[in-house]
Amino acid sequence: MATTRSRLKRRRLSQPAPRTSRVPAAQPSKLLPLGAMLLAASFATSVRAQTENTLNTVTVREKAEVTEGKDSLRATETNIGKGQQKLRDIPQSITVVTERMMDDRNLDTVKDALKQTAGITFQAAEGGEEDIRLRGFALSTTGDIFVDGIRDPAFYDRDTFNLDRVELLRGSASMLFGRGSTGGAVNMVNKVPRLMDENQIDMTVGSHNHRRVVGDFNQQTGESSALRVSAMKTTADNNGAGSSIDKQGLAGSYRWGIGERDEFTASLYRLENNNGINYGMPWIKPTSTSPASATTLLPVNPTSNYGMASDYNNGTATYATLAHTHRFDGETELITRVRRGAYTRDQRASTIRLTAGEDLSNFGPNTVLTRGTQNKIQNLDSVYLQSDLSTKFNALGMRHELLSGIDVAREQKTVYAARTATQGLGGVDLIKPNTTVGTPDDGAWVNESSRVLRVNNQYTSTAWGVYAQDLAQIAPYWKILGGLRYDSLNGNYDSFGAPAVNMSNGALANYKMNIGEWSKRVGALFQPNERASYHFSAATSFNTSGDAYSLGPSNADVPPEQSINLELGAKIDSADKNFTTRYALFRSTKLHERNTDPLVDVAVLSGKRHATGLELDFTGRITPRWEAYGSFMWIPDARIDEAYKSPTGSDNERTGARPSLTPRISATLWNTYQINGQWRVGAGVNHRSAQTPNRNPGWEAPAFTTADVMAEYRVDEQLTFKGNVSNLTDKRYADQLYSGHYVPGAGRLVQVTGSYKF
C-alpha cells in the first residue's frame, strides 16, 4: 500500500509543486534574526505536525492543464497573485510571456520580453536603467519589478537565461505588494528544479559577431529532490542599437522534499554585465524655424555609437534565497522566503548633443556632436523576508480561498560622485573631445579609472507590511473578492554637498520619511461555465517619495501619491480550451502626482491624471498546427487633469495635455505554424503609435512597426536549428524616449540557434 502511494506521488510530482508569488516592503535592522526565527518556527510547526500524525500523506494536485511554458505560448496559471491560481480566478488583467515565446523570438533581455506585451513603453532614463512605463505610468522607479514575488532593484540590465516566464499584472497592485505604481507590476519567475533528468544547451551566432551560449541542466538527485543549474555567456560587438555586449550569468537551485509536507529550496543567482552603452541621440528639427512639433530622429544608422571608447555600463546582481513550504492537512499551505541581495552599477556614459544651429537642412557627415558626461555609480544591499498562508475552507455557507501574510525588508543604497580637480584629493576633470556624424566609433578615449569617488548620497529604508484577502463563492456562478493591506515604511536619506578644496566631503543634509498607508482591493467574478469568466475590480495603490531612494527639501514631507484602478473584463476559452481570449476596459487615475528629476528642478508636474482604454489578449492553439499570441491596447482617453507649475517655471505637463510615454495604440502579434514533423515557421509584428517624451516637450516620437520572422528545423528529438530575423525591414525608430535624447531601436538582426537536449 505504501509503495503504491509512493509511486503515485512520484508520478504526480513530475511537474513542479505550486509556488507563491509575494513581495517585500522593508524592515528594521533586526531583520535577519527575525527571518531566521520565523523560518525556524515554520519548520518546528511542520516537525510537530509530522510527529503527531506520521501516517498522513500530502500529495500535490495535478494541474488540469500543463501545456504551457516550454511547450506553449499560452499560460493558464500564475503565482503573481500571492499563490498558485488559475488566471480565470483573478479579477484583474494579467499577461504572461512564456519561455516558449522567449525562445521563439530570441528574447535575451527582460526589456525585450516586455515589448511583447501591449501598453509597455520605455523612458530613456537619466541613469540608463530600465525605466518601464505601463499605461503611461512608471513601474521601475516605484519599485514594481519582482523576482519570484520579491522586490527587485531597477538599475541593472536583466537577462532571461534563468526565467521560466515573465508575468505582467495590469493595474494597482499595492494590496499584494505594498508601495507601487498605478500601471501594474512585473514578476519574473525563475526556473525551479523538477523531478526528472533533463538538460539543454543553446548556442546562438548572429549579426555583429553575436555569440551566446545558454545551458539549462536539471538532475533528479533523490526520490523527492532535484538540482537545477542555468548558465549563460553572451558577447557581441553591437546589440543593433550601438552598444557592445559582454555578460555572463550563473544560477543554481536545490530543492528537496518536493511535494511532501515540508519542502525546501535553496538558490543562488549571479549576473555580471560588462557592456558598452549608447546613452542616446539628440532630437533634430527640419530647419531652424520649424515648430517644435516637427522634431524628429537623426538620419543615422542605429548601430552607430558616438560615445567614447572608454564608456561602459557595468553591473552585477547577486542574491541568495531560502524558501520553506509547509503543507498542512487539507488545502492549507505556508510559504516562507528569505532573500539577501547585493547589486552594483558602474556606468560611464557620454551625452551626445548637437551644436547650436544644427538642423536637417545642414546635417551631414561633418556635423559636429558634443560629448557630455553622465555617470551613475551606486550599490544597493537588501534583505527581504516574506511569509504567506493560503487556505481553502467552508464557512457561513460559502467556499473561501483565504490569502494572508507578512513581509519585511531592509534596503540600503549608496550613490557615488566623482571629485573635480578644484575639489582636490586627486580629483580630475576629464575632457571629452567632440566628434562628427561621419566618424562613429572613432576610438576616442579618456582614463575613467583616474576618477576619484566620494559618497554623494546614501539611503536606508526599513518597512513591513501585512495583508489579508478572501475570495468567497457566494453563489453557484459568483465569487467576490476583498483584500486589505497595511504598510509602514521609514526612510533615512543623507545628501552631501560639493566638498571644499581637499575636504573629504561636503556638508551633510539629512531627510527622513515616515509613511503608513492602507491599500484596498475588491472584485467580483461571474463564471457561468468552465470556459468563461467575467470580472469587475477596483483597487488602490500608493507610492512614496522614497521609492527612488532619493529625498530632499521638495519631497521629504510630501504625502504618498494615491491611485485607483477600475476594470471590467472577461477571460473566455475556446470550446477545446486550447485558446484563450482576454478583454478589459480600464480607467487608471493618479491623484496628487509628483515627478522629481535630478536634471531639472521639477518637484511636482501635475496634481491629477488618468488613462482610460481597452485591452485585448489572445493566446493558444487555433488549430493543432497553428499557435498564436497577441496583445493589444488602445488608450483613446489619457489626460493631465490638473497640472502644477514647477518652481523653475516649466509647465510642460500642462492641464489638458496627453501624458507623455502613453501611445494611443500599442500591439504585438506572434504566431507559428508547424508545417510537418520537422519544419516550423513563425512571424510577428510589434507596433507603437506616436508618443511624447517625458514632460511633453512639444513633439512626438514617430509611430513605428517592426516585423520578425523565424524558421525552425528539428533534426530529431534532441537536435534543433532555428533562424531568426528581427526588425526584418530595418526600421529606424526611437525605442526609449527622453526630453533631450532618445535611444534608437535595434536595426535588423540575423541569428541562428542550435539547441541540443540530452
Task: Report on the architecture of this protein.
This protein is globular. It has a 22-stranded antiparallel β-barrel. The longest helix has 22 residues, at 31-52. The protein is mainly beta. The chain is 6% helix and 50% strand. It has five helices and 38 strands. The two termini are 34 Å apart. A hairpin with a 4-residue loop joins β34 and β35 (719-726).
Task: Please outline the helices and strands.
Elements: H1 2-12, H2 31-52, E1 77-78, E2 85-86, E3 94-98, H3 99-104, H4 110-114, E4 120-124, E5 130-134, E6 137-138, E7 145-147, E8 150-151, E9 163-170, H5 174-177, E10 184-190, E11 198-206, E12 210-222, E13 225-236, E14 245-256, E15 262-275, E16 281-282, E17 312-327, E18 332-349, E19 352-354, E20 368-371, E21 374-395, E22 398-418, E23 435-436, E24 453-475, E25 478-496, E26 508-526, E27 532-543, E28 561-573, E29 579-591, E30 606-621, E31 626-643, E32 665-674, E33 679-688, E34 704-714, E35 719-726, E36 734-737, E37 741-744, E38 749-757
Parallel strand pairs: 4-36, 7-10
Antiparallel strand pairs: 1-2, 3-9, 4-5, 5-6, 7-8, 9-10, 11-12, 11-38, 12-13, 13-14, 14-15, 15-17, 16-37, 17-18, 18-21, 19-20, 20-23, 21-22, 22-24, 24-25, 25-26, 26-27, 27-28, 28-29, 29-30, 30-31, 31-32, 32-33, 33-34, 34-35, 35-38, 36-37
